[in-house]
Amino acid sequence: METLLTEAxxxxxxxxxxxxxxxxxxxxxxxxxxxxxxxxxEQYEAxxxxxxxxxxxxxxxxxxTRTEPYREIxxxxxxxxxxxxxxxxxxxxxxxxxxxxxxxLYTGDHRHIVANRELILSETRLCDVRYLGDRMxxxxxx
Length: 142
Prior knowledge:
Low-confidence stretches: 137-142
Number of strands: 2
Order of helices and strands: HHHHHEHEH
Number of domains: 2
Shape: elongated
Strand order of the largest sheet: 1-2
Structural class: mainly alpha
Radius of gyration: 21 Å
Helix content: 55-70%
Number of helices: 7
Mean pLDDT: 87
């Protein structure tokens, strides 16, 4: 528990106050610590269920299915980007951008997608490609 708390503090996790509380309980009252962890687990699972219900609400989220293979664009990307899934993500984003002006692709994949930003912008209808870490800040949040 102490190692986890030290790491959480060093990384600036949002859960540090909770972890401090649990660490104290673990030292003083192990049974109470278990009860607290079970309550947190239940609240976390309830939050996950709520978030899932939001995603399933078609008024909040519309899913798009690409039918065009964009073979020429695929060939240009796959020659440079060695990850099949990343190429598919770019083509999906391009397909959506064809219907939505000003579309920006935010991605956590710096190595394959952000590093090839200029190629992607030259071959797709995307307005920009940005690294998700730039939007959220570089710190880890657990």
